[in-house]
Amino acid sequence: MAALMSFEEALEKFEPVLGFEVHVELSTATKMFSAAPNDFGGDPNTNIAPVDLGLPGSLPVVNEQAVRYSISLGLALGCSIAESSRFARKNYFYPDTAKNYQISQYDEPIAFDGEVEVELDDGTLVKIPIERAHMEEDAGKLTHVGGSTGRIQGAEYSLVDYNRAGVPLVEIVTRMIFGTEHRAPEIARAYVATIRDIVRSLGVSEARMERGNLRCDANVSLRRRGTTTLGTRTETKNVNSLRSVERAVRYEIQRQAAVLDAGGTITQETRHWHEDTGTTSPGRPKSDADDYRYFPEPDLLPVVPSRQLVAELRAALPESPAAFRRRLQTEYGFTESEFRDIINANLLVEMEQTVAAGAAPAQARKWWLGEILRIANARGVEPGTLISPLHLSELIALVETGMLTDRLGRQVLEGVVAGEGSPDDVVEARGLAVVSDDTALLAAIDEALATQPDVLAKIRDGKVQAAGAVIGAVMKAMKGQADAARVRELVLERANS
Amino acid sequence: MPDETSAITTDQVQHLANLARIALTPDEIAHLAVELGSIVDSVRKVTEVATPDVPATSHPIPLQNVFRQDVVGEVLTPEQALAGAPDSFDGRFRVSAILGEEQ
After folding, report:
1. What pLDDT does B80 receive?
2. Quick check: A66 contacting B, CB < 8 Å?
3. Which end of chain A has the lower number of beta carbons within 10 A, N or C?
4. How far apart are CA A141 and CA A160, in angstroms?
5. What's the complex ipTM?
């Protein structure tokens, strides 16, 4: 376990300099260079074409949709779109690619020179400079078998599944980020969250970090106060959640500060983030870009996006997540902290769609942040995967019109979550609708009054609270599926008639 | 340009050979250092003529924007996919453990 300096002391002595490489898997139907499905959850090696294995005689052909998605993403990052862009081979030997090279882009990326505005939790805005966003293909997935740790060291052999090989990626590379100071870990997290929100708003990726749709490599170096020389950087990989991004950056600052302060030097290397221990460990020494021997991909032709296409895609860009936030905050009229809760739960898009489907903002907020978030947390899933905004708005309407009580509403939610269909389907199948048929209610009331004759007398004497016992009995007889207020009304009516 | 001999050293050739996973004998390394050197010299000669306004040519045929629609096509069966594998296990390619990491 590496020695750490306290974060405060590290910041007193050094200035952190950050940089990020974020890989985004595009949600196209097919792969970047082959017509195999872009789908790698299932059985191994079932979604691969000859191109994905680099079989002799196979030739890659560029997926047009992937290019359009990449241009849209580039535009959303404030980038210029290249007049002419081409692919390059990045040569390395590792079995995650069967070709011994990855098709990427090198000196002519599709998008370059952008800027992303990132909003921190307290509303502070930070501008992150984007150097480039380039297209490339994902690699296959290795499982290391036989080692005691399951990690690479000590493994006896590795098994390779190439379903993911060739999945379209956009790699977003920032310039060096200065001046983050004490907020470096927080800014790191907010930056990745912003990229996630942008790609989701564009609809170009599922962007689920836990599934690897969005992966972040965090570069950290330290510069000693009072000097102008940049420090050696490390690149931390395997950072698979927003929380980890924040922790990993903080850890690297503390670790590097301790090394430098003790007179040591930082090795330029990749480091591996360990979620369980909250530490990083050294990976391989970082190769020089020259060692990849990039050269123009001879099997692919240049991509020359017409200015008309770029203009079309620019016009079709959705509202930026930042503008979207500001608009909804004004429209919903929540307090700052009420609104912040929605953002922190990452439910703004769900909120917007639920309100668009007809629900009142307050009701939508109550359900998303209440019952739905509770179920999601218990199951360790994203709330948005449990119920669609349309179904939730239908459920809210059923409660608002008195067809369901809050309690019945929660049961209907349970049914929808369990996959029993729309709220109406669940109400019907489970027989959950509030009994609003007065005849049925009156029959139950008469029965209850008959067994508790003294209650009737009390009510007639003006002791209205006594009705509670009868209401309780009726609700029980109706198995809870009655509107208690209506029952109360009917009991009083009956008693005083 | 016989005076301007190549700047390619035997160490550089050895490094390149390692990157390309090619085993070379000392004789081959010495030989290749000379050959690569003369190739670099030739390229240098071309760059003297090619001013920055001459675009780099990666393809001799003036074609661009050759795309494929994003429509799912045929895939290999797992058996076909693994047919050329030196070794496989449980539907996956089996390779010897390699010290290293994903790039």
Report:
1. 96
2. yes
3. C
4. 6
5. 0.88
